[in-house]
């Protein structure tokens, strides 16, 4: 297969992702100025960190704090495939404050490599969204599709990425609490039932008022007077969708109406806020089981 790597960096926030396969490459000892969370997809890699030697095999999670020195290389000649998400301390601090979790600066895990399936799944979701890929554990070879980060600002993508990052931190917290307490994890702080409804309905009103315009997680938090974390959980509890899922639904429905009025698919995609026609095609198919083209052709009666 040979060595290969893909890398994307957000233009707006300190968030980076890399997916790579290495057989010969070996990292010299170094440290990042970010929180760095990784998942080994296939194979195994060995590295030294925090005074010990560790091996991360398929499905395992790696967690490095800022300025955690480490190296790394393939554990055998078959190499390893992995991805790593780098999160700036200020971004991590904001998410942790939203979740009312422990202060930033403590190790994310007691050890820099752990078996944590929920954390691995959430990291895969986040990195896939940033890379615009859909690989699974054990997948081989790079996916060369374009990334949303290459296409400029996109409110829907930004909101979705924020939610996926929150899920990563939430999963880390749940894992850490389960490890720390033999009796199980203490539940995260809950808002009251009435507050869930108020927060969710206010957030939905903001999304409805915005129509197809960009809406950030920060704007929803400001409008409701609650944290981004609380907005996300309240909206999910009330409507069964995340705010970004709801916003995408508004955009798909808007595109469907335009298509019904005879607007070309490429034009409808742009007006509805999708990155391009293929982006609309993917979501239209997922929502309605047919492509935009098939939908428009079905409106034409017998000649």
TrEMBL record:
Gene3D superfamilies (alphabetical): Homeodomain-like (1.10.10.60)
Region (Disordered): 134-154
Alphabetized UniProt keyword annotations: DNA-binding, Transcription, Transcription regulation
Statement: the UniProt record of this protein carries the keyword Transcription: yes
Leader peptide range in chain numbering: none
Single GO MF descriptor: DNA-binding transcription factor activity
HTH araC/xylS-type domain span: 201-298
Protein name in UniProt: AraC family transcriptional regulator
Lineage start: Bacteria, Bacillati, Actinomycetota, Actinomycetes, Micromonosporales
């Amino acid at each position: 297969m040979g060595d290969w790597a893909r890398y994307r960096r957000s233009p707006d926030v300190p968030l980076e992702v890399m997916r790579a396969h290495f057989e010969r490459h070996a990292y010299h000892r170094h440290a990042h100025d970010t929180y760095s969370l990784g998942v080994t997809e296939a194979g195994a890699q060995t590295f030294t960190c925090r005074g010990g030697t560790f091996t991360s095999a398929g499905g395992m999670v790696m967690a490095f704090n800022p300025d955690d020195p480490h190296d790394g290389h393939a554990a055998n000649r078959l190499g390893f495939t992995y991805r790593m998400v780098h999160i700036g301390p200020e971004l991590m601090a904001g998410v942790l404050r939203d979740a009312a979790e422990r202060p930033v600066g403590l190790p994310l895990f007691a050890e820099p490599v752990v078996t944590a399936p929920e954390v691995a799944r959430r990291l895969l979701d986040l990195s896939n969204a940033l890379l615009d890929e859909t690989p699974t554990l054990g997948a081989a070879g790079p996916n060369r599709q374009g990334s949303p980060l290459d296409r400029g600002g996109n409110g829907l993508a930004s909101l979705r990425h924020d939610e996926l990052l929150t899920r990563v931190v939430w999963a880390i917290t749940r894992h850490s609490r389960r490890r720390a307490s033999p009796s199980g994890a203490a539940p995260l702080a809950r808002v009251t039932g009435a507050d869930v409804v108020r927060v969710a309905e206010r957030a939905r009103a903001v999304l409805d008022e915005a129509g197809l315009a960009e809406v950030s997680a920060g704007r929803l938090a400001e409008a409701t007077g609650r944290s981004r974390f609380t907005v996300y959980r309240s909206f999910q509890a009330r409507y069964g969708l995340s705010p970004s899922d709801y916003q995408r639904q508004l955009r798909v429905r808007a595109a469907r109406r335009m298509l019904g009025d005879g607007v070309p698919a490429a034009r409808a995609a742009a007006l509805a806020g999708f990155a391009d026609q293929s982006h609309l095609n993917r979501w239209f198919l997922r929502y309605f089981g047919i492509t935009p083209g098939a939908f428009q052709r079905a409106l034409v009666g017998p000649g």
